[in-house]
Amino acid sequence: MPAKWKDLLAGLPALVEEAVEAAARDTAETLNQAIRRIAQASNVTDALTALVDSTPPLCSAAVILSLQDGQAEALRKRGTTGTELRFAIASAPALASLLETREPVTAAATPGEVSQPLLDSFGEAIDGPEGRVYFFPLKVRKEVVIAMAAAGAVKLGALECLTEAASLKLEILLPPPHPPPPPAPKPAAPDVQQSKKASSAWDSLPPEAQRVHLQAQRFARVKVAEIRLYQADAVRSGRTAADLYGVLQKQIDALREQFQKEFLANQPTMVDYLHLELSRTLAHDDERLLGPKYPGPLV
């Protein structure tokens, strides 16, 4: 073998490693730019536009689907065919599974799995007869309100990170419709009277106290959503082990301390919204998943 070929072959592993590292850097930079754009969106329309516009390096085609009244309808599309897209969720079992599990779903690119209209919309973006369609949930306070479907050269981890970032932004842009009232006092009274007091507890708070309650809710919602986004692997392993606190103790303890200082210390009617959000968002309303060493509510 000529010497020059030996030299080229000897240097090949280093060239491959360098190419892999360069590709990883490019993907990371693309992801960072996309997340920044989503974070800067001032409304839901801009956030969804930023999401779908950021997908070209991560898949061949993508569709943002609203999910309402048993129907899926395209809000934004890229790399697809046709103008309108609407179909029954029941005709796409993979999408129905996403709504049930609230987790990403991978499905065979067949009409029986993803519906004929969606399959037609993706067209040549599907990677041949063995192609797949990937569904990612966008959740607001644990409920899936929108989904993104993607096909063709899909980079799963990057797209999951993007949709988590979009979910976080939607949580911020879409406040809860009715703030939960603070806990009612516990006088010795019939249940009917206590129920009436609880229902009017929020209205009885002065405006400044209501403002602090809403601020505390927002703090809890945003901080827990950030854990779900930036510590996604740890959250999954914590749920699997039924020990979210054990896996995320450092982050949770820091938030508990901050919540105590900023909201509980000077507001006697304050609710532990942080505990509620940890239970709802990370533990899927099953406090047992927080783990045996979780200290419990602050109040």
Protein topology:
Layout: H1 3-40, H2 44-53, E1 61-68, E2 71-78, E3 86-88, H3 93-101, E4 105-108, H4 111-114, H5 116-122, E5 132-140, E6 143-151, H6 156-173, H7 191-204, H8 207-230, H9 232-240, H10 244-264, H11 273-282
Antiparallel strand pairs: 1-2, 1-6, 2-3, 4-5, 5-6
Cα-based radius of gyration, to the nearest Å: 24 Å
CATH architecture of the largest domain: 2-Layer Sandwich
DSSP strand (E) fraction? 5-15%
Helix content: 40-55%
Main pleated sheet: 6 strands, antiparallel
Shape: elongated
- The total of beta strands comes to 6
Number of domains: 2
Q: How would you characterize the overall build of this protein?
A:
- The protein is of the alpha+beta class and 299 residues long.
- It has 2 domains: 21-173, 2-Layer Sandwich (Beta-Lactamase); 191-290, no CATH class.
- The protein has 11 helices and 6 strands.
- The chain has a 6-stranded antiparallel sheet with strand order 3-2-1-6-5-4, with helices on both faces.
- It is elongated.
- Mean pLDDT is 82; it is low at 184-190.
